[in-house]
Amino acid sequence: MIKANWTSMSGFLLMGFSDDPKFQIVHAVLFLGIYLLALSGNLLIISIITLDHRLHSPMYYFLKYLSFLDLCFISVTVPQSIANSLTNNGYISFGQCIFQVFFFIALASSEVAILTVMSYDRYVAICQPLHYEVIMNPSACRRAVVAVWVAGGISGLLHTAINFSIPLCGDRVIYQFFCDIPQMLKLSCSNDFINEIAVAAFTTSTAFVCLISIVLSYTRIFSAVLKIPSAEGRSKVFSTCLPHLFVVTFFLLAAGFEFLRPPSDFPSTMDLMFSIFYTVIPPTLNPIIYSLRNEAMKAALRKVLSKEEFAQRKMYLKAIFKL
């Protein structure tokens, strides 16, 4: 990357993974492959759940929104990084950086919230099955999703407003492949970043409360599952709960480690690689985890891809266009 002539601009320089054009091409190709995999996987889950009426239950309703969040989450950072590598130019404008910070924080917060709601849904389904339809009724599910979006939006607005109100000094170089708040705070030339730390502490506390709620839900779930006499019944419950638990653990541990540790002045390649664990890997793995471990999802996929179903969809579309 070339720093000349960009420092007079109002944007930032994302250092990314390497200055070598060959490595940048490799990085772009790898990120493009991962992005297409995440895009196709999440779109497939959204399509399957939408098309198969048997999957119109609260669990799959929330899973569809998780896939939509994943799709948006990975789209905030990866396409920009691919474009920067292909053009050998790490410059990102001030407006683009604001866009990244807002949507990155908003979507990450929304993902934590939806994972918490999903754990509560599993708790009610397994531990209070007789009251499940009453508690998790369609209206309650819609309100939960609205609350998830509102919580994410508020978190994104707070972080963005405070982070970009801090005066910056020196070269605007960010040692990441996206506008990372911990790295941006090092560019501050005043003590105003204490406000951002306060907001980050509030967000972390909220995430910790979500984690405690998830742990309590699964403690009760596994306690109830161990009392099920049927091995087939236990296996069915574990097949729906373990993938969700893995996703929650992986996402929260990776994000928590990255945001709670003090940022180094010059992050190593390992630091940059670790950031992939919470920005790129979860949205890519989630569709694979849920589809491979869930028999209902696999059955629905086989149905959607079957010749009979395809012929019915084709006839239905023809009838629509004739109208």
UniProtKB/TrEMBL annotation:
Q: Matching PROSITE patterns, A to Z? A: G_PROTEIN_RECEP_F1_1, G_PROTEIN_RECEP_F1_2
Q: Which Gene3D superfamilies match?
A: Rhodopsin 7-helix transmembrane proteins (1.20.1070.10)
Query: Keyword Transmembrane: yes or no?
Result: yes
Q: Which segments cross the bilayer?
A: 25-49, 61-78, 98-120, 141-162, 193-216, 237-260, 272-292
Query: Which coarse location class describes where this protein primarily resides?
Result: membrane
Q: Which residues form the G-protein coupled receptors family 1 profile domain?
A: 41-290
Record flagged with keyword Chaperone:
no
InterPro entries membership: GPCR_Rhodpsn, GPCR_Rhodpsn_7TM, Olfact_rcpt, Olfactory_GPCR
> Keyword set for this entry?
Cell membrane, G-protein coupled receptor, Membrane, Olfaction, Receptor, Sensory transduction, Transducer, Transmembrane, Transmembrane helix
**Topology relative to the membrane:** Multi-pass membrane protein
Where is it localised?
A: Cell membrane
Sequence similarity: Belongs to the G-protein coupled receptor 1 family.
Recorded protein name is: Olfactory receptor
Record the organism: Echinops telfairi
